[in-house]
Specification:
By secondary structure, the protein is an alpha+beta fold. 22% of the residues lie in helices and 33% in strands. Helix 3 (186-197) packs across helix 4 (239-251) and helix 5 packs across helix 10.
Length: 497
């Protein structure tokens, strides 16, 4: 079969947003002199690298693509096994080669097609260390308990910039079905439909990271057949099959099980996401200007910032509810069946798992709190994922606010040390969230998780959310509206709350 007739599919995958497809390799980069707010310019750090070919072009590995398609499949198990294959099991006498053969998706040559990511590049990284097809993103680890940035916990990732187009070619092995008929292409269309709608890929996918999307208009199909007289295999254009497959994909409504929430964040004042170029210790009287993260003339809000703020708010709400229950003599509402004296609080888990730093068994999962199950810990993938963060309105750009640097010893202003922050006034963002399910969870724990998430949504609509830089001085205060709240089961039905 693997040498028999097949269809060769070629198409383009467009990257919505930015993505880090890590290799596990790192290299050392230097900081731009004077870029550090505390004066340690020139300090070196490690940069996590992305997959690249020998010519420097970024690529998405075939196993990664096949893996996300496998995970997105919601159809019949028999069709899934036939399409993706199944491992050999000698005892059960099962195992087969899948019909879908996936090749790497290769990006453009960055020297020939550079990506405009200047608004995402901070001055804390020298220009020589910035990739031509993206930028270096510097994040700080957030303390799960306090929601504040941890000291000396910066990490840097090489990112492929938004809008990059990857090209790939896949093979679909033909069986007894007729590839010319729509029914013969039904399973193939079901496989590709989630990719046409957009699937997350790479590090930080649960934080609104990279999402790749099949460009339907680029889809071409060729049929590989062997000439029975010469024995030579040749690829021949199959425009009828390509047109049928494009029609199926255009009409498809892929199933993404889980609860889907769309939030509108309406800014109430200035907003800025830092580019890593905070004002340093320049000469007295020298005014520094802090530039915002921006792309296509709009401010950028990291999905990590949203998920971190949601986790911190959920943690606070959970503790409030626990203290209420404790004062009333009731059991912990977010660890059903466990008394306060037995369960304690979230920090117990850190002591329990301090040696292995991971959830290794179902017994460990049973000790997780609702916040930890919803937003994840090492060894347990988060149930709440930020699918997309998009700026709907930039508001009023170029709003400049000037402040004076504060002396940390006296608490007074430093004479002559002014800095200006270029902000966006009243921007609006759309945030898409998905709350997944995990079949292994007992019903009482799942009910507690749903209750806490509902409490979180209610609190957001009443009290808003603070995001970005300078929240303690009035920056980044957002009002929150719920635009959509629906649930989609594996049957494909959507129920609106």
């Amino acid at each position: 079969m693997m040498f028999g007739p097949r269809l060769r599919l070629s198409f383009a995958l467009r990257l919505d947003g930015c993505v880090h497809l890590g290799t596990g390799r790192r290299r050392t980069i230097g900081r731009q002199s004077g870029a550090e707010p505390h004066g340690n310019g020139g300090e070196e750090r490690e940069l996590a690298l992305v997959h690249r070919g020998i010519d420097g072009r970024p690529f998405i590995p075939g196993p990664t693509l096949k893996g996300i398609l496998n995970a997105a499949w919601t159809g019949a198990e028999e069709d899934k096994a036939a399409a993706f294959g199944e491992a050999l099991n000698a005892a059960r006498k099962t195992g087969r080669v899948g019909r879908l053969w996936v090749h790497h998706a290769l990006g453009p040559d960055p020297k020939k097609q550079p990506v405009d990511a200047s608004g995402l590049r901070g001055k804390d990284v020298p220009k020589a260390d910035q990739p031509d097809d993206g930028f270096v993103a510097t994040h700080v680890r957030i303390d799960a308990a306090s929601g504040a940035a941890e000291a000396n916990k910066l990490f840097s990732l090489e990112m492929v910039g938004p809008g990059v187009v990857f090209e790939t070619a896949w093979d679909w092995l033909l069986m007894s079905d007729d590839p010319e008929s729509p029914s013969g292409l039904a399973v193939l269309a079901d496989i590709l439909a989630p990719l046409a709608a957009g699937l997350p890929v790479g590090k930080g996918a649960g934080h609104g990271g990279g999402r790749i999307r099949l460009q339907n208009e680029t889809l071409e199909v060729k049929r590989l057949e062997t000439d029975p007289q010469t024995g030579i295999a040749a690829l021949r254009q199959a425009p009828g099959i390509a047109a049928s497959l494009r029609r199926l994909l255009a009409a498809a409504n892929p199933v993404f099980p889980g609860r889907h929430i769309r939030l509108l964040l309406k800014g109430d004042g200035p907003f800025i996401s830092m580019r890593g170029d905070a004002p340093g210790r320049g000469e007295a009287g020298e005014r520094r200007e802090v530039e915002p993260l921006e792309h296509d003339g709009k401010p950028v809000l990291w999905g990590r910032s949203v998920s971190g703020a949601l986790r911190a708010r959920a943690r606070w709400l959970q503790e409030v509810e626990r203290h209420k229950a404790k004062a009333a003599g009731h059991p912990d509402p977010y660890a059903p069946g466990r008394a306060w004296e037995v369960r304690g609080d979230d920090r117990d888990l850190e002591r329990v798992l301090s040696e292995r730093k991971a959830v290794a068994s179902t017994n460990d999962v049973a000790r997780l709190s609702s916040v930890e199950r919803l937003f994840g810990v090492t060894g347990w993938r988060r149930l709440v994922a930020v699918d997309r963060v998009e700026c709907r309105s930039a508001g009023v750009p170029g709003c400049k606010l000037t402040s004076v640097s504060i002396d940390r010893f006296t608490g007074g202003g430093r004479d002559g040390f002014l800095f200006t922050e270029r902000t966006y006034l009243d921007p609006e963002f759309i945030v898409d969230l998905t709350v997944g399910t995990r079949g292994a969870l007992p019903e009482d724990q799942a009910a507690a998780d749903r209750a806490l998430f509902d409490l979180l949504l209610d609190d957001l609509t009443r009290n808003g959310l603070e995001l970005g830089h300078g929240a303690s001085k009035g920056f980044g205060w957002f009002q929150v509206q719920i635009l959509e709240d629906s649930e989609q089961a594996e049957s494909g039905e959507r129920a609106h709350a």
